[in-house]
Amino acid sequence: MLQRKLIRHWLVRYEEMHWGPEKAPDVLRRTDDWLPADLPCDIHMPLLKAGLIKEPLEGMNSFDCEWMERKSWWFKNEFTLDGALMKHEAVELSLASLDAEADIFLNGRHLGHHRSAFHPFTKNVKELLTEGSNVLLVRVTSGLEHFSENDVAFLRNNIIDCDRYGRGDERRTFARKPQYAFGWDWGPRVPTCGIMGDATLTGFHRLAVRGVRAWTKKAGTRAEVAFEVELEGLRAWSTTEAAVTLQVMDGERVVLAFEREVSVRSGINFLDFEGIVDEAKLWWPNGMGTPHLYKIRVAVETDQDRIEYPRFRFGIRTIRIDEDKINERERWFAIEINGVRTFCKGANWIPADSIYARVSEEKYTALVREAKEANFNMLRIWGGGLYEPDVFYEKCDEMGIMLWHDFMFGCGLFPDHLAWFRREAEMEMEHQTRRLRNHPSLALWCGDNEDHWAMAIWSEDGKKPPFFAGGYCYNELAPRIVRRNCPDIPYWNGSPYGGEHPNGTDAGDRHHWREGMMNPDMEIRITPEEYDRTDAKFISEYGYVGPCRKSSIEAYHGEVPPDRAGEIWQYHTNFYEKQTVNAGIAKHYADAEHLTIDEYLLYAGLCQGLMYGYSLEALRFKEHCSGGLFWMFNDCWGEVGWSIVDYYLKRKISYYFVKRAFAPVKLILRQNGDRVKVVGINETPETIRFGAEAGYVPFDGKPGHTESVQFEMPPFSRSTLFAFSKDGHEERLGVYAVRPIGSSVAVQPAILRSDAYRNLRTGEAKLTVSAIELQGDEAHFTVSTDTFAHAVHFDLDDHVRLSDEYFDLLPGEKRKVTVYGVDSAFGDRKIVARCLSNSSSR
Fold first, then answer.
1. Rounded to whole angstroms, how far apart are CA atoms 129 and 113?
2. Lowest-confidence segment of 103-107, 428-432, 672-676 by average pLDDT
3. Are strands 132-141 and 90-95 parallel, antiparallel or unpaired?
4. How many other CB atoms sit within 10 Å of the CB of residue 348?
């Protein structure tokens, strides 16, 4: 086998949309106006580099790029082949991702039409290649030009869009490409178009390795593992003798090996292997243990060739959905990994850029690392985005981040009554399930986002369409393909889904919008205690909006100074914000109208953090809730929106609230009548024992009303540890708290306030910061207080990553803080700590 990548030295140009495939010879004759490009390439990228357009994600610039979706775009690559590749019996051309409608030509011959960004174009082109010069030409468009108002008439009013600033397009569900590209509540209309992955030529002699599947039959110290190797004999009339080897490696040590001599028949062949890995190291989600990875090597030798299948990493783990009955009315919905029921902690993932082809490996790595450091163990890959490149899944494997993975159908009805659409959906699902099935991070395949729920809503509102367009894909096609290609990975029909109503609380997962941020009652939107009311078994969406850091806001404003009343600010504000940020500030901190921009950003960030932190604790507190995934983790551009890590990779204030709420070892307090209930969570494999002081703590540091208690938390446990009486204390002058003492594991104090911070009489705290200690690229210091201090933060740049910030300190408490990625000069600076109680704005 020999492979040649065609990534460099492409040229791109545009013509009018009516220049169809028949114009290929005319395009090839053109010598002017070609722009250089490398793959992957979205059409915006070479135009940006050439200075022909401005950055679409800054200011109002996206409107100046609207013309681009009305053009046809032509990519050309002239390459030379020597005799080595031409000696192979078959040479396959593969274009990994064409977004979205494409026609492919090689040396003047039309190879075919392709209409999906979600599976590759592949064809044997041996007879069309020449030794020497060759020309590959690809025509591609953004994908909507073939669909008319008549096509979407039967779906009208049954496709969710945000008709603001031109966002949304009812035709989008006909195009097999990332749906968000046409605009969403959290992103602009910047229709993607281009060659979004690699182009390769691969030569084969006699046979090809088409796939390797690895899975765990039984986890444990003696783990049972199995493998399936798929070979294709390329000679239609004869067999081929081959020797197959498969090795499981832990580092450089072979822990399991197979060798087999086979006669490969024409067409598809399957080889099965099973074995025992002694003293197996299991793959565990973040916080529960080590996500250990083995390497898999597969090689096939014939008398003419040696084929090395791309090496991949494999985690020994089992996974299932626990839907056991709780009672006659309710069922669990919990991910069970390696036999342990797990609370899924995390958020929804969207594409990391509106122009997704330009997301770098470094950005993927940074984002997954930020999820890990926020104590996530799951990301939900939302169904309006894309199947991400390999590096994303590899980083999730490494860092113990489980993936709830939607198929790419979101917020609308999809025309699966059309034969061509069904074929596209089947090829997409077939390719992606085979491509991703060996990743231990892949925890669940899900049919769609909100489409079952939409059918239920539209039926209730009298807008029921003539049939469930998309239902065939989610309820028939996807479960069959998942069962065939990766039966060890659970399948779930949709999100939300489960029970009599697809968005109910008795079973399955729930999108908690109507009782939260989407409620017409503003007071409900901005009151965190509302989340104590839910009885959902697993919440996979809900959210609250908040702004970015100031430097990010300045970045997306470009040369225009930020102005909260300005056009750019409004354009870069989420569609559903609807004055919620100001109302939240007014409830919890101060009247918002006359705040400076710095005060506004501080209070708004704290409100988002309060809503996320309290709500996630509320879900973890509930005995029968097994997941809290908020909307959303990251951004595709800069805006006042749902995320906790912004487009520029800066942590929003809310990031630290989420990190604390998701701590693997956690105490949570909630009122229960006239008592305060203490729930302890231990997600680690070790028993944790410690003493604590529990009760009422005054803000001013004077003696409170507390008692000494001893706690023991078994491994992988969540249970009620203790309850104490409220005893009629003045709740505006103090908080209820549990302060751990003497734990060998860092367990942070748990605090429960009884009123909005605006109404609490916290007084003025005196904060003290120790000298900085440098250890490699980390800096450590300790902050302490005399009295209660709310939202302790530091005078550091927006891009600085800390172990904790914007936290509360009880009187007399101290906390060690680590700053990551510093240089030696950082040790010379003096860090200033601030908190809200001693802010000039109070």
1. 19
2. 672-676
3. unpaired
4. 25
- The crossing angle, in degrees rounded to 10, of helices 550-557 and 597-621 is 120
Report all structural domains of the chain as residue ranges with CATH numbers, in order of start: 2-201 (2.60.120.260), 206-314 (2.60.40.10), 335-659 (3.20.20.80), 663-758 (2.60.40.10), 762-842 (2.60.40.10)
| pLDDT for res 839 | 39
Return the SS3 of 619: helix
In 3D, which of 396, 385, 399, 392 has the Cα closest to residue 351?
Answer: 385
Mean of per-residue pLDDT scores for the chain: 96
Cβ contact 499:557 at 8 Å: no
Task: Give φ, ψ of 626 to 5 degrees.
Answer: -125, 15
Instruction: Tell me which residue of 354, 464, 462 sits closest to 413, measured CA to CA.
Output: 464
Tokens standing for residue 419? 């034969």
CA nearest neighbour of 368 among 384, 347, 343, 337: 347
Assess whether pLDDT exceeds 90 at residue 727.
no
Cα–Cα distance, 444 to 418 (Å, whole number): 27
Dist. CA 541–CA 416, nearest whole Å = 26
Residue that has been written with the tokens 């050439």 in this structure: 50
Omega before 100 within 30 of 0, i.e. cis: yes
> For residue 811, what pLDDT is reported?
97
Tens digits of residue pLDDT in 405-453: 999 999 989 999 999 999 999 999 999 999 999 999 999 999 999 999 9
Place of tokens 């927006």: 798
Helices of type H across 93-167: 149-152
Question: For residue 283, what are the β-bridge partners?
Answer: 291
Do 548 and 651 touch, CB atoms closer than 8 A?
no
Distance CA 126, CA 389 (A): 28
Which residues are paired to 16 by β-bridges? 71
Cα 171 from Cα 161, distance rounded (Å): 11
What span, in angstroms and rounded, lies between the C-alpha atoms of 407 and 417?
18
**pLDDT tens, position by position, 610-656:** 999 999 999 999 999 999 999 999 999 999 999 999 999 999 999 99
pLDDT at 466 over 80: no
In the block, which residue shows the tokens 């990391």?
A: 352
Is residue 543 a contact partner of residue 642, using CB atoms and an 8 Å limit? yes
